[in-house]
């Protein structure tokens, strides 16, 4: 299957792929097949309000958005699913791969991989929630690449639309390299449709994965979309865009997000704290000097001057 024919999803990335980014990305480049929200969590005994606002935002009107939840026990799972059902959501992704120690150490994210009792309860809930569609995003393990084998039967028994696999152990977070042997093993043993996630930074990367795994259901791209927002459009068109095309569309994307934050937040500090992360993976495109100017900007005036130097 060629990359312009397969499903391409945008991964959930905390602090990046919130509703303003998703909306503007879909508007400027054409929507990905789906966008997954940064994970919803329980805070003070209830679904975090900020997360729910992201899921129910009017900015979701131009793209297919799937909320992702993170949980450590069945009570958190039930609270989150209940809130999403009430909000009208009918598709949910389960985070079983978050690698960050504050979550893993409390049994959330990749920590769920070692909790067979919880997974069995989750499987029962999924079976009961017939009006909802579920998927899973997971890693091979926390510290070893074969931990998934202990739970694969439970995962296979779940009523899932697909399983997304990021082939790094959680201990690596996003360092080191993806382990394609581990992915191949999981791909062969999982009885659900499988989506690949991890280090897709170019059309060639996507093509290599698609060619290596016939029957793959799709590709989920995270940091690759932050570093090259046009990547999915380039995959669909089957060509690499010129630098001029990339920069022109990049500035359009930025303008939409910046306008949103400028009109909804108060004061330079708030706006800058939300918009500066936009450039975190883009130094290769805009140059070190400009990236440094953006990072050091202490006012909207200085920030806009730095952005104006691009292109």
TrEMBL record:
A Pfam family: Dus
GO MF annotation terms: flavin adenine dinucleotide binding; RNA binding; tRNA dihydrouridine synthase activity
EC number per UniProt: 1.3.1.-
Residue positions of the active site: 98
Listed cofactors: FMN
InterPro entries referenced in this protein's UniProt entry, alphabetically: Aldolase_TIM, DUS-like_FMN-bd, DUS_fam, tRNA_hU_synthase_CS
SUPFAM superfamilies named among the record's database cross-references: FMN-linked oxidoreductases
Annotated residues for binding of FMN: 68, 137, 166, 222-223
Annotated keywords: Flavoprotein, FMN, NADP, Nucleotide-binding, Oxidoreductase, tRNA processing
Domain (DUS-like FMN-binding) ranges: 10-264
Free-text function comment from the UniProt entry: Catalyzes the synthesis of 5,6-dihydrouridine (D), a modified base found in the D-loop of most tRNAs, via the reduction of the C5-C6 double bond in target uridines.
Family: Belongs to the dus family.
Protein known as: tRNA-dihydrouridine synthase
């Amino acid at each position: 299957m060629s990359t312009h024919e397969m499903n391409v999803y945008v991964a959930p990335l905390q602090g990046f792929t919130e509703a303003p980014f998703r909306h503007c990305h879909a508007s400027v480049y054409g929507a990905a097949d789906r966008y997954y929200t940064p994970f919803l969590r329980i805070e003070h005994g209830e679904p975090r309000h900020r997360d729910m606002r992201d899921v129910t935002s009017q900015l979701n009107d131009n793209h297919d958005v799937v909320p992702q939840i993170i949980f450590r026990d069945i009570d958190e799972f039930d609270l989150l699913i209940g809130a999403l059902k009430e909000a009208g959501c009918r598709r949910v992704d389960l985070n079983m791969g978050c690698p960050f120690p504050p979550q893993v150490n409390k049994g959330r994210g990749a920590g769920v991989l070692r909790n067979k009792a919880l997974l069995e309860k989750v499987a029962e809930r999924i079976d009961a929630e017939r009006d909802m569609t579920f998927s899973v995003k997971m890693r091979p393990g926390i510290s070893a690449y074969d931990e998934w084998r202990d739970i694969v039967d439970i995962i296979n028994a779940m009523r899932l639309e697909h399983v997304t696999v990021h082939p790094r152990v959680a201990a690596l977070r996003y360092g080191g390299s993806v382990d394609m042997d581990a992915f191949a093993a999981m791909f062969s043993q999982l009885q659900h449709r499988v989506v690949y996630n991890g280090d897709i930074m170019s059309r060639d990367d996507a093509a290599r994965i698609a060619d290596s795994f016939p029957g793959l259901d799709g590709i989920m791209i995270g940091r690759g979309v932050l570093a090259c927002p046009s990547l999915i459009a380039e995959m669909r068109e089957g060509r690499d865009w010129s630098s001029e095309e990339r920069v022109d569309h990049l500035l359009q994307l930025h303008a939409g997000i910046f306008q949103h934050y400028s009109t909804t937040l108060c004061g330079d500090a708030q706006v800058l704290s939300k918009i500066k992360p936009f450039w975190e993976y883009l130094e290769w495109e805009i140059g070190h000097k400009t990236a440094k100017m953006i990072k050091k900007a202490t006012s909207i005036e200085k920030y806009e001057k730095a952005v104006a130097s691009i292109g």
